[in-house]
Write the structure tokens for this entry.
Amino acid sequence: MVKPLIYAHRGASHYAPENTIASFKKAVEMGADGIEIDVHKSKDGYLMVCHDEKVDRTTNGSGYIKDKDMKELKSLDAGSWFSKYFEGERIPLLEEVLDLVKMENLLLNIELKNGPIFYENLEMDVVNAIKSFGLEDNVIISSFNHYSLLGIKKIEPRIKTGILYIAGMVSPWKYAKTIGADAIHPLYVTINKEVTKECIRNDIMVNPFTVDRENDMILMRNIGVTGIITNCPDIGRKVVD
Ligand code: G3P
Ligand code: CA
């Protein structure tokens, strides 16, 4: 059996504020193979790494990312909500994360948050950023918006894509193939050994999310998944090594 890769979800977000450089560095420290991040676009067109459409939950600011310039977004504190220790963490730009990924030779799962707010040219901008760092082989792009994944393949077929979903899909490998995707990124409770086996037999990777309990990670490992997306990369490391 091949060892599943460990992707730290929003970084090691159980231990540090999600989607910050601190959480990505923590993931590296814990031995993650890669990190998962979420991408939106600022009013002036910068690619910003944040989970929600709004900054309210994870910063000291309020309002939509799409309505703010990069400078204003960068002035927000993205760490204090988690703990005083992380005061001063900032919302990263995608290029700052790409820089870290290159330096640490990490894998990177970029989730395009393209809906319910739709960002113009998000796919093209993300592809260009990846190419400018020469990280085409390190990245897999996922999204719940599968039209975005079609868009990515049209722009750059070399970049891998993964379909995000939370339903119990029938024959997801067949659907993945129809949109040229390389992986499924299912909610972990929706898959089993048979689905995983068929995906792999059809050259489709299986990277379930978000698996945080040790028992669930053992189950995922035993059914043969290719990657585990987790907030706790330390537990992931322990389970797969
Ligand atoms: O990529 C898996 C997972 O991140 C998808 O859901 O809401 O945590 O971005 P969410
Ligand atoms: Ca995500």
About this structure: The chain is about 35% helix and 20% strand. Residues 9, 36, 38, 51, 111, 142, 164, 185, 209-210, 229 surround SN-glycerol-3-phosphate (ligand 1) (CB under 6 Å). The domain at 5-240 is CATH 3.20.20.190 (TIM Barrel). The chain has a mean pLDDT of 98.
